[in-house]
Structure formats: structure tokens, C-alpha cells
Design goal:
Blueprint (H helix, E strand, L loop, with lengths): L1 E3 L3 H17 L7 E3 L3 E4 L5 E4 L14 E5 L7 H14 L6 E5 L9 H13 L24 H11 L9 H7 L5 H8 L31 E7 L7 E8 L5 E8 L8 H14 L1 E7 L1 H13 L4 E3 L4 H16 L3 E2 L4 H9 E6 L2 E6 L7 H17 L11
Parallel strand pairs: 1-4, 1-5, 5-6, 7-10, 9-12, 10-11
Antiparallel strand pairs: 2-3, 3-4, 7-8, 8-9, 13-14
Helix pairs in contact: 9-11, 10-11
Length: 391
Amino acid sequence: VPVGAASFEQADLVFGDMKTNWRESVHLSPLADVFDTEILLKDRPGKAFRVAAVRGTNDGLRPTCYICDEVHELVDPQKAGAHLVIANGCAKRDQSLQLNITTAGHDLDTLLGRKYLRGKQIAAGDLEDDTFLMVWYEASDAWNLDDPEQLEQAIKDAYPADADFVPMDDIARRYGQIPEFEWRRYYANQWTRSDESWLPAGAWQACLEPRLTLSAGTKVWAAVDMALYHDHAAVAVVWQLDDGRWGIKASVWTPGDDGIDVANIMQHVRGLATEFELVECAYDPKFFDYPASVLADEGVPMLEHPQSAERMIPACGYAYEQIVSKQVTHDGDPVLEDHVLSAVQRPSETGWRLSKSRSSRKIDACIAMVIALARAGWHVNRPAPSGPNIW
């Protein structure tokens, strides 16, 4: 049973608890010898021990159980690689178990972020995996942390232990003493970003509609944000609900060894045109020119939409207004949410548009959403025929 973390000191916190349990338990203490750096079973080969988060030192292990603490700190390739090597070793032993313990992180494009998104997708019914269990305690975004009673409730959301065990007053006092995004991550167990998102805090979450559905035959607008190799690609779909709000869904493709599979994206667009009343599918000709021409020849309504400042600045402003005024709704897709909240404003002399933050998080689904939303908005609220069509 290797016990790991980003550092020996962190691993020792968990391993120290294990040693205490084995030494003080009347049931466990006769079964093992407890030393400073390992616990050895007396009647069979077996031990628990600390491991360093160094990839090359952990090859060859066949763990019965791998315990890793504070997985959010495994962001550097060396440390994340150590986790991968030991986890791969678990596959060599039947009925092995991996136990990851952590608080939230600030980058979903990491080892922990990918596990978190997988757990959310399984919980939402989008994926099936009966070998993967995520138990995640997180404060709701709905609480107003400036209200003492709601602040206390947010802490209770994130700490399921009895209030007599959790130092509620001490945790509450930390709010206001440190940056809010740090308090939310460490004490509310919410994923936060050190870069400021383009949207006000909670604006995207306020548009959540868990039961949002898109019925066959609905009039829709779509947009493609295409990449070839290292980036993601996305297709966003926008439609208008009976109450006038905009529904939004998005699909995202990650690059493989040979880059993005363009054929899959083309087939997805064909499916949109077949299943729905597709008004148009906007695309930037930079990476999607030939696929778009093929689709257009097949009768799919494609629209060339370069991502120039002239087009994107008003489109980003329109998307901002619609989201902040709750005229947009989504079903809580965690991938779309991460792409939306990872975008930041980049100002220029003529206005601001969306850009990636300094982190490695992706925003392709957000860009596709902005374009599709702008096109839908122009069609529904278009100016008089003599008016400008900058979108």
C-alpha cells in the first residue's frame, strides 16, 4: 500500500494517521509491526509505506491499494507522472483500489480536473463507469458569503463532519482575511481561478436549467471553433425557448496523436442538419474552410465567420449581456462550464474580446457559443434591411 502526495511531508500526514490506527487499535496492533517509514504485516508479505512524487522511482510496483493525498497539487508533469506510474501498477493486481483525497483545484486541465469532470459526468448520467466513485462535498454557489448565516451554511456544505468537530468560527473568520477565490477553494471546496473570468461571479451558474432539453425539429444555430493539433475543437448549438431565453449546448473534441479528427466534427454537423432545423452553421475559414465547403455542397447551410475583432467584439458583448441578464440557459455541462469560465477579457482600442487566460485551460466551446449566440440574436433581432450587419 504506497501512500503518496506532492511531497514526503504531505504523504506523512496520511501515513502518520495510519501508523496511529495500527498502534492504538486492539484489533490491528497484533497484526503488524509499525516503524517510522513502513508498516509490516507479521503473518504474510505486505506493507504500507510512503512514496515520493517522482516518476522514475515508482516503476514496478503492484499495489493492492494506492492512497494519494492532495491530488490538486500534482500539476507538474513529474508529480502527475508518478501518480500515473503507480496507478498503472494497480492494473497488475486484481481487485486493486485507488483512493484519491483532495481539496478542489484551480485548473480543470490537470490530473485532478480530469477525474473531477469524469465524476461529474458519471453523476449526471452522461458516462457509465461502475469502477469509478467520486464523493465530493462542495458549497453551493447560491450562498451569499457576506451574510453570516449563509456563510455558515456554505461551510456546512463543504464539511459533512459534525459541527463540534469542525472549527466553524475559525473558518468563517478566514473569509475576508484572504482573497475570496482562495477561501472558496480551500474552505468551500469550489473550483476557482486566480485569473478573473470575463463574467461576474455566479452569473453562469445562475443560468442553470438542469432539465433543459433540445427536441428534434427545433430551429437552431450552430458554430464551429476548429483546431488542428494541440487545441480542442468545439461545436455549440443555440436555440430559442418559448419564454425567449436562449438554450445552449456544446460538444468538445480533444486532439489525439494525429490531431483533431475533422471527419467526426463534420459528421456531427451533418447530424445537426438532419435532426434539427439548422438555420446556419458559422465557422472560421482559417481551419475549417475545406470541410465547410464539402458540407455546403451537401446542402448544409454553412456561413463563413472569420474571428476578426470587427465581428468578435460585438459578439462577445452580446453574449455577456445575455448571460448576465439570465437570457441564456444551460444544463450544467461541466466541460462547457469550464470553457466558459476559463475565458478572460482582452481589451483593445476598439473594445474587448475573449481570450485564454495565462493557464492552459481551454475556451473553444465558449468561443463557439459566443458566435452561435450572436448569429441567433442577429436573426431574431435583426436590424432593418438598410442597417449594418457587422455580425
